[in-house]
Amino acid sequence: VASGERDRAGLSYSSRLNPSAKTGTQATDGGEEETERMREATRRLYGKLQEAERRHECGRKALEDQATHHQEQLAEARASLQRSEERVADRNERVEELQRLMAGMEKEHQTLAAKMRDGESQLEDLRAQNQAGLADHHRSLQLEKEVGTLREKICHLNDMLKSQQRKVRHMIEQ
């Protein structure tokens, strides 16, 4: 009885699915048709499922490839950024070194300029002294000439005096 009820329940279920299903022998033939249609629908659905899985797998693979590509690009961008940061740091170090050198050169320039001003001042003093010294030198030369002339005159006078003294002695002796 339970088996018959199941058959009827199955038949009524399949009748609901396929209203054109017949009873009895027709039901058996209709059941085979129904089974065949179900198998065909299952095959179609399974084919669609496989196609969807293939598309899904291709999409997943494409996304993985794209993610890998983006990760590679990100790694390259990070490496490029790091290199750029290193170049900027090196450039900043060079700029700081050049600024230190320029500050040192500026300080040296100021020191040399002060020394130059001192030297120019001393040179002006020496020139003034030389002018005075040159005048003194000329005066000294002139005085030396005068002294030389006076010596000659004195010698000449001494000679004349001696000559006169001899003449006087000679006159006295006579």
UniProtKB/TrEMBL annotation:
<feature type="compositionally biased region" description="Basic and acidic residues">
    <location>
        <begin position="83"/>
        <end position="92"/>
    </location>
</feature>
<feature type="compositionally biased region" description="Polar residues">
    <location>
        <begin position="12"/>
        <end position="28"/>
    </location>
</feature>
<dbReference type="GO" id="GO:0031674">
    <property type="term" value="C:I band"/>
</dbReference>
<dbReference type="GO" id="GO:0035556">
    <property type="term" value="P:intracellular signal transduction"/>
</dbReference>
<feature type="region of interest" description="Disordered">
    <location>
        <begin position="1"/>
        <end position="92"/>
    </location>
</feature>
<protein>
    <submittedName>
        <fullName>Uncharacterized protein</fullName>
    </submittedName>
</protein>
<feature type="compositionally biased region" description="Basic and acidic residues">
    <location>
        <begin position="50"/>
        <end position="75"/>
    </location>
</feature>
<dbReference type="InterPro" id="IPR051375">
    <property type="entry name" value="Tuftelin_GRINL1A/MYZAP/CCD68"/>
</dbReference>
